[in-house]
Sequence to fold (1141 residues):
Amino acid sequence: MVGLASGAGAVGVAEPSWIDAKVGEIVSVGRGVVKREELGRSLGGRPIHLLTIARGAEGEVRPAVLIVAGIDARHRVGVETALGVAEAWASSPPEWLVGRTVYVVPCLNPDGFVRGGPRADTPRRDEPGDADRDGRTDEDPAEDLNGDGLITMMRVADPGPALRLTPTMVDDPDFPGLMRAPDAAAGERATYAVLIEGLDNDGDGSFNEDGWGGSGGGGIDLDSNFPAHWPEFSDGAGVRPLQAPETLALARWALDRGDIAAVIVYGRHDTVTAIPKAGEMDASRQVPLGIEQDDKALYEAASKRFKEITGIHGAPRPDTNGSFVAWAYAHLGVPAFSTPVWVRPDQVAEDKRPKPAEKPGATREEGDAAPTPRPEPKTDEAKWLRYFEGRSDLPGFVPWRAFDHPQLGPVEIGGFIPGAMMNPPPEEVSSLVDRQSAFVADLAGRLPMIEVEGVGESLAGGLWRVTMRARNAGEWPTLSAIGRKARRNAPTRITIDAPVDRLVSGEKTRIEWSIPGGGHAEARWTLRTEGMGKAVVRVTSPILGTRTVEIPLEDAR
Amino acid sequence: MRTAMMAALVGAAFAALAGRAAAQADVPSKVPLVFNRYHTADELDRAMRDLAAAYPEIASLRRVGSSVGGRDMLVLVISATKTGPDTEKPAMWIDGGIHANEVQAAEVVLYTAWYLTKMYGVNPTLTSMIDERAFYLCAMVNPDARVAWFETPATPHNFRANLRPVDDDRDGLFDEDGPDDLDGDGAITTMWKKDPHGRWIRDKDDPRIFRRVAPDKAGEWTMLGEEGIDNDGDGRINEDGPGGDDMNRNFPGGWLPNYVQWGAGPYPLSAPETRAVADFIEARPNIAAAQAYHNTGGMILRGPGAEFRSSMYPAQDARVYEELAKTGEQLLPYYRSLVIWKDLYTVHGGFVNWTAESLGIFSFTNELWTVEKYFQRAPSSPNEEQQWLWRDRMLFGQAFSEYKPFNHPTHGEVLIGGPNQWSSRSTPTFMLEEECHRNFAFTVYHADQMPRVAFDAVEAAAMGGGLWEVTVTLRNDRLIPTRSEHARRNRIGANDVLWCEPEGRGRVVTSGRLSSRSDRRFDEVLNEPGRVQLDGGVPGRGVVHHRFIVEGERGTRVNLSFTSQKSRDASIHVVLGEAAGAAK
Fold:
């Protein structure tokens, strides 16, 4: 197993060279099956690895699945899972890899992944900027004031007028420690102002508004920097789409390839348990906000299988504007599925949940009778708090503790641990890898596969009709609805190698944008064959390469 | 009464001109150029290099990138070095030739460089522009395609895109079947085939004219399309010609993919040419105005390019555009001020849309030349007869290739000829200099309206108890604000900052914005009262009043300064207890 999580806990910071070393191991284990390339370099100059996993002849063209992880610096389980599946296939290449390619980009954001210092709730790697437009760069980042290695939250009870803070939250009486908006109808009033841990370094009255880990600044969020529905002007989106060297490298590489038939993202978005809305377009009325109506069935089938295999039936659904998964669908033009890989156990089917109480102390002691029935958690945060309460081995929430803030006076520091809601306990990683690997295998089995056959029939002496058929033996169409719309990938081409003046009917090259699963494309020519003896027909497709068929055209004597 | 007054005014004007006759004399350039001819890409590059070499104190040439074909992308920077670096002055970007077939665009940019440089130290207006402002001039955003337009057979409409090879017919081959100059006349014209079932006839008085016949009439000719053969033997003609990306659809911000509009390219700034331009501009937040040249139609265009981006042009900014364009219409007869999406067509990822919408720069595209200038009557498009009058009597047939028979490998006997690449979109050479000068004059006016901010007044009044009211007014005497309303709303670029720094033991206790100088109460700045963020900048032809409450002894010097990305910085000081400050 991969074992990143060991020691530091699933959200722990990796050694800077950990990914590079792991990639090296996978390549050496998978000699002949795995190839390593560098997609590009991060802002900080770290390699962005690309693994190509395939069985069979070198350079053979076949449909590919692209797996991308590590876009959001907090989403460490994605990097582990991507490397885990690659390692599993490298050490024992499955049968389905014959005729398929898997590309794995295990970590698009190596800078964010290995960044040292306190852990903060941010997807970004560190990049200088002026988020508050005051002409100063990174002058007010978040700080780990209490020295616990984490940037959590500060709360100020009943802030007096001199502090210029407005209380907006209450401490939930049903879930002590959980901050939430007051229920005005129930007579609650806000008592706490809640801020990210840190100082007002520049004395402008705002806390942590310009720098890493704060409410603004710290550079680009790579998963908001792709051109599809790019959230221009929002903090972290970048000044232009594909501004980051990481996003540009991935987009350029993917656009140069014709063989990518599906994309899987291990990241913060979920587009597979609840599929994106079908048929809704952006303001130009042409770019889908979710998916094309005609891709809905394909998505529904994939979603059903995903749920069966992983047991995951729910997940957080942050906005996908500017995300890689949105771009991979709407601009690259291929079906793209994003999953957080790990979700709260209540979002997993019962039979797939991790077995509880395997570790002493992981649950409450036997016989420790609950004195009163506890309230049922309704919000996501309450559910998380309840989950972490039951996991003394897995730190997820820092209880509020008093702290004497140099500017605000007495405050308390605490709250959820950054990244804790995204990353599993270390012992769960291996089963997550198995399930994601099974989903990729299932998806790979549904990709289009082209077979060709041809026949010639003599109509009269020296006049023949040639029929050529390219059949899609796979389940998916050769191009999905978005692929047909985007026309970025080449179509299937059927070409007869005969001088055009021999053709009595038929285009020399027939183009078929998409062949449905189980369907076929047919090209037919009538031609004068005198002196030819045979016709050579070429079928070319971005997922098949070129296949040549010779059809004899000998007139009977 | 009125007539008499006019006559008197005209007389006075003549008298003034006669007295300044020397100023109208020829002002020679150290780089002799003429603008009654077009320049090839090499000639343009050489002229820009020569201008930079001849006027080193105000001009320098930067290589900002290279094209698909490996040609240098050049930007000429014009600004007097003795008055400070160009990056500290409000600057105007001016480019041409992103659509290389729109050939006069590059000429206007070259003219701008030529005229500005030769007038430095000669003409006070332009000298002051070069001292106080900067110009970034890129004559050819698409140099490869300009080479192709001049050196290989072309049409009025090609070469528009850059020369990135694209497989238009998706047969796996790139640019393998473009048009061909079959008759060897140097131009791509039209092929016609005699055909008893055709839908066209030739005019019996003027056989150069083909007319479409009424549905119930028999025709004699079929139009086969552009001159060319089936180069790749696939049975089709001219289906995969050279190029490329329509680079005026390749800029970020409102970029949308190729399936929304042809030419967008695979991703924003995918073209090396657009990337070079964008990198240069993004690195220079002092750019406050932008002008791109295109043809054709006589238009002064502004964004948005798409209706759904209209909110990026709030009323305050729209008024600035309207005033600039209204003057443009005066300087440019037969040109109309228009909004791209509403009056022309929808554009996503256009250059001026990016500069205006993503960077907050006041930007125009001029569509050079209009057929209304043929005979310079009241605006109206010439009819067919007038078009031939123009071609025959003004251009002496130079924009027309006579029809010649040709034995075509696929179609047999055909006729090849018709209006050539110079026939419709390019300004005729005898009118080129005027076109250049009028458009140049419009950009000088636009550049002159970039923000110019100074401290208008500063005074310190004793409040007693060692406290002083220091009241300042910043004035921008130009039309363009230091921060557009769009930039303010969407937090584009850095805020302007007004600093108040008392020397010695003095300090700023608090401060606040005033809506007029005589207000007694201000809108208080609670934090950093001596470093005031002006997120809305200083409005065009407007003022910002601010009052600082300063604690300090009589005689304390209080330094006030203003910094802005799109205006020169300004400073002034006041001594507590003394009368007035002095601007620097």
The first helix of chain A runs from residue 18 to 29. Chain A touches chain B through 41 residues (CB under 8 Å).
